[in-house]
Amino acid sequence: MAALPALDTPVLDPKDPEERVYVIFAFAKDLDTGETISTITDVVIAAGSYDQATADFTANAALDVNAAAMLSGSPATIVSAPTKVAQLTISGTAGVDYRLQARIVTTGGPAGARTLVLAAILPVREA
Questions:
Q1: What is the pTM of this model?
Q2: What are the domain boundaries of the chain?
Q3: Class of domain 3-123
């Protein structure tokens, strides 16, 4: 599979397969004045490997054929910080890196409704 450029994708602290960890996507810097999150379209996940030297993520579904099972429940905005989206992650395969991508639709900005996407790399490692 071809590598996907990370495009300033943050690499999160590693998670143990036994941990339940929220991944937080902060959209504030991408929102215009008066613009808010209207809808969380989805959060998707892919298993693969992340190369820190090149900042490339190479998807490889064979590393975890059930990667989607890491997403527990639906993503939600954080009530106390409504420009952030939280997604609970569980399990995962030790030694695998996961790329999570959150997609939202905005409302109220000068450009009208927009679709915005943020990504994060979540390494899963045994503690």
A1: 0.91
A2: 3-123
A3: mainly beta
d(CA 10, CA 104): 18
Of the candidates 8, 2, 16, 4, which has an alpha carbon nearest to the alpha carbon of residue 94?
16
User: Positive or negative, the Cα torsion across 56, 65, 23, 26?
Assistant: positive
How does pLDDT run across 3-59, given as a tens digit for each residue? 544 457 899 999 999 999 999 999 999 999 889 999 999 999 999 999 999 999 999
Q: CB of 83 within 8 A of CB of 96?
A: no
Q: What angle do CA 101, 14, 95 make, to 5 degrees?
A: 90
- Give the pair of three-digit tokens for residue 42: 């989805």
Provide CB contacts within 8 A for 76, sequence distance 6+.
40, 85, 86
